[in-house]
Design brief:
The chain is α+β, with helices and mostly antiparallel strands. The chain has four helices and five strands. It has helices at 11-19, 33-42, 85-99, 114-119, and strands spanning 2-4, 44-50, 53-63, 68-76, 104-107.
């Protein structure tokens, strides 16, 4: 398995994987291709791949000046779960964050992902109610 930044031509595959993952609670308009292009340039966007098969993706933003990072999403294809892909993506995200001088990582987790993040050193913060309004 290789973890790396995706090529531009792989961004559509990233979007499909994210859109099809129930834990992300997205619809087709939540994360656009333009959003992933911007993250690839100005944020953190990493994929896990073996051969031509994309196993997972992690993405987020950071501010080196203010020393924080937001982990927006981590997705592992259902056929590759429980095989270390999520752990490897999270560790790669942490390395990237440290390279940008961030000292903390914040995230919002689907209840199904809490055990994963707790196991990897995250502590539960305040609870929020997720809400969404469509503007279309």
């Amino acid at each position: 398995m290789t973890i790396r930044s995706p090529a531009l031509k792989e961004l559509k595959e990233v979007k499909i994987l994210v859109d099809q993952t129930p834990e992300m609670d997205t619809d087709g308009d939540t994360f656009s291709l333009a959003y992933f292009r911007r993250l690839r340039k100005d944020g953190i966007l990493l994929i896990a791949k073996t051969g031509t098969r994309m196993q997972g993706v992690v993405f987020g933003t950071f501010s080196g000046k203010e020393q924080w990072a937001d982990l927006i999403g981590i997705v592992v294809h259902s056929s590759h779960r429980q095989k270390g892909v999520g752990r490897a993506l999270l560790q790669a995200f942490e390395r990237e964050v440290k390279n940008h001088r961030a000292r903390t990582i914040d995230l919002y987790s689907d209840p199904r992902q809490v055990v994963f993040f707790t196991k990897h050193g995250f502590k539960k913060g305040r609870s929020y109610v997720a809400m969404r309004m469509s503007l279309s």
